[in-house]
Amino acid sequence: MTQQIRLEYPAPGYWHATFSNPPINLIDPDTIGELDRLIAQMETDPDVKVVVFASEDPDYFLAHYDVLVDKARTAAMPKGPTGMHPWLDVLARLSRAPVASIAMIRGRARGAGSEFALACDMRFASLEKAILGQFEVGVGAVPGANPMARLAHLVGRGRALEVVLGADDFPAELAERYGYVNRAIPDAELDWFVDRFARRLAGFEKYALAETKRFVDQLSLPDDGVFPPALDQFFVSTARPETRERMARLIGMGLQTRSDVERELGRFVDSAES
């Protein structure tokens, strides 16, 4: 097993986590395990104040969950400290950790990749290179980590439904307009902006950061109880023959490779039944 998350420490209180899982940064059970260990550190380290998540691949932040992983293996993973499936567990704990989490999105973040970005406290995206989306409905599946709940808080009901039911790609400029991301920043300036902001937070007192975030969380985060039913429906929906046929067609066209399908997945799910 190769390490998928490289952790660096640019300044006191400031951690930088870089995803690297070639060929396109798919999320798999090993990713979840590494995130579990990293978030446990975030929850217990008294000095960390801000963590930036980035990608080594400029074209893929986190592409989506690996659809070729045995669904039974994924479903059977032991529950996390919250009592939920470990994917739901790491996302919920990330959102509530006493640390500011920032997704620096360069490249594609769809499906579970979008779910991870939504679980972070803030999202800053490359204006030219970031693409977000929840493509699951386009292949006949229900999004598993209930991004519907997080999106509804961020962008409102109508736009949340547009994102999840339309199953299309959202380039950074449109994602910013909707509130899907905080800001769309010219790619040449993205690293500088996020680094400067993270260093600013790292210079403040952790007590004030953590307590202030806790009050925002009370009004803005969905209750953990809304997440398990969505994952149950994900497993039900992906077992349907119609969903399997659509997914098999996309895999045959190049899904999970550095292909046109992955580059323009929103367009290809629209033709998945033809």
Summarize the structure.
The chain is of the alpha/beta class. Helices cover 48% and strands 16% of the residues.
How is this structure best described in words?
With 274 residues, the chain is α/β, with parallel strands linked by helices. The chain has a single domain (5-187, 221-269), classed as Alpha-Beta Complex (2-enoyl-CoA Hydratase, Chain A, domain 1), CATH 3.90.226. The protein is built from 13 helices and 10 strands. The strands form 2 sheets. It has a 6-stranded mixed beta sheet, with helices on both faces. Helix 1 runs parallel beside helix 3 and helix 5 crosses helix 6 (157-166). The longest helix is centred in the N-terminal third of the chain and has 16 residues, at 29-44. The protein is globular, with a radius of gyration of 18 Å. 42% of the residues are buried. The mean pLDDT is 97.
Give a quick set of tags describing it:
274 residues, alpha/beta, 2-enoyl-CoA Hydratase, Chain A, domain 1, four-stranded mixed beta sheet, 16% strand
Distance, first to last CA: 38 Å
CATH class: Alpha Beta
| CATH architecture assignment | Alpha-Beta Complex
Indicate the structural class: alpha/beta
Residue-averaged pLDDT: 97
Element-by-element helix/strand order? EEHEEHHEEHEEHHEHEHHHHHH
Helix content range of the residues, please?
A: 40-55%
CATH fold-level name:
2-enoyl-CoA Hydratase, Chain A, domain 1
Number of domains: 1
Report the sheet with the most strands, covering strand number, pairing sense and barrel closure: 6 strands, mixed
Question: How would you classify the quaternary structure?
Answer: single chain
Low-pLDDT parts are: none
Principal-axes geometry comes out as globular
In DSSP terms (H or I, runs of 4 or more residues), the helix count works out at 13
- Any idea what the radius of gyration is? 18 Å
Count the strands? 10
